[in-house]
């Protein structure tokens, strides 16, 4: 190869060859980098961070958080009482509060929780209508939720959207219910939210307003001018692109723009979450998250199987939305300032998560066993229509279990349909309960 000749030092015969060789080398480098970044950007959901972890190179630098807000040492933070550790031995845990965060693989997790609940006749706290309990404010109104099927005070499972507030949650769930949250790399999460809500439910036409201003390259327009896609008067709870993960997890909404830059406030928020949740999972490490969750909840392997749901297909979106963002440091820093709470949230809990799974014994063995079963499940559910059931034999990491076509159907059911189905089941149970009073 010409470029190889240049690299190994053999002298080119003429200046023309030299120029040709140089340009070929640059071209291949260009193609390589292009493919590399494409992969980094678009590649399978969870690889870019794994790559970032493995190669601590310049390419991955922009992905790590170097705080634009200086950490002031010795700020006095409020103390929060941590939840007691959960013993690993015992029956499966059936009371779980899952803080669903927008566009963070949480519909897939919701599907897992709904299947778990349905299988065991558990009571899920559900909105009377649609799929969100509350998205704009923290209060959970009793008249807006489906009554407990046995008329009790405390439910078993939460897996629909709320703005997380421990005081509100404690009205519906026992303190012993395990609290789980999830976060995702903020740039991916924001772009996913931007595209998803642009094509589905654009409140106040905020995203269209920004789109119209940055028609040629809305992605870049957004990263450089997120405020153009935002209605400031409406506030962060009416938007999905202003630190939405932190909003979902209960960050104080008043004086939001000012609070973003208030180190004490953000750090206090993170410490509060650390104390409130038994685990904060990471969507970028989805399978690892499921294994950690299963260990904490002492769940059988069957309970955490999944087929992805609610992944934006972007079919309706025009090609400008498919542009690769130019991740230069100015664009990134600009967006990090806008999304400051979410970036700190993410890196804080990513760090805790990675340390935590590193301490787990035989974690990768279990992960591999899970992934192997997952492949059989995918094949059975999606490509092997003839077989009636899939029998998974007992192994080191699993009891024997059988998967039916119904299981497949539930695993691929859309969020609105599944929520509606569970709602109807619970409403029936509630009516029966009233009749027997
Ligand atoms: C759930 O409830 C149904 C109907 O009441 C009942 O037939 C079934 O056995 C229950 N399942 C479990 C696991 O309790
Ligand atoms: C930052 O937040 C803390 C805690 O809420 C507050 O006491 C402080 O006055 C805030 N600082 C600024 C500069 O607003």
Task: Please give a structural write-up.
By secondary structure, the protein is mainly alpha-helical. It contains 17 helices and 6 strands. The chain has helices at about 1-10, 15-40, 45-55, 105-120, 165-170, 185-200, 205-215, 220-225, 245-250, 255-260, 265-275, 285-295, 330-340, 340-360, 365-385, 405-410, 415-435; strands at about 95-100, 155-160, 180-185, 280, 390, 400-405. Helix 1 packs across helix 2 (about 15-40). The longest helix is centred in the N-terminal third of the chain and has 28 residues, at about 15-40. The radius of gyration is 24 Å and the shape is globular. One 2-acetamido-2-deoxy-beta-D-glucopyranose binds near residues 264 and 265.
